[in-house]
Amino acid sequence: xxxxxxxxGVAVEDLDAALALYxxxxxxxxxxxxxxxxxxxxxxxxxxxxxxxxxxxxxGPDTPVGKFLAKGGxxxxxxxxxxxxxxxxxxxLKAAGARLLDETxxxxxxxxxxxxxxxxSSGGVLTEIVQPSH
Length: 134
Ligand code: CMX
Fold this sequence. Notes:
Layout: E1 4-11, H1 15-25, E2 30-36, E3 41-48, E4 51-58, H2 64-72, E5 75-82, H3 86-95, E6 106-107, E7 113-117, E8 127-131
Parallel strand pairs: 1-4, 5-8
Antiparallel strand pairs: 1-5, 2-3, 3-4, 6-7, 7-8
Bound molecules: carboxymethyldethia coenzyme *A.
């Protein structure tokens, strides 16, 4: 079962320009910034209560976020749900017919374990399952 929304991922062209909106105008606090090579992004996490907004800038055009920006420009990229047992979630979703982009978890931000479900099998919403490292 999903415990809660972990974060909402937002694709941006320029992290520092995006921070002018999220940090200065929305007054959200930056809690983490990291280059996640395995996902082809530089990401910034901002606190919103117990959840986060994750700003995502691509490391290059031939990355998931780079292609997304080229196709439609900046905007909502994915929703991430948190779980304490990602293998169990993936097995359950696979049995339910979900199109898993990752059959086994990959390394995500802050050393979390993550896996994605294709938007075509989740109502048009790219969906991430996250198991935090702690
Ligand atoms: N949300 C909703 N729909 C999306 C989407 C998104 N983020 N990205 C692509 N799509 C849609 C496209 O618009 C396209 O739809 P149409 O066929 O109707 O035009 C379709 O999905 C394309 O699917 P595809 O050809 O299988 O794949 P793409 O090469 O466009 O890649 C995806 C899309 C989701 C498979 C790829 O981005 C992926 O593997 N994502 C998972 C990893 C990821 O996104 N990492 C970055 C975030 C990392 C992090 O959070 O740390």
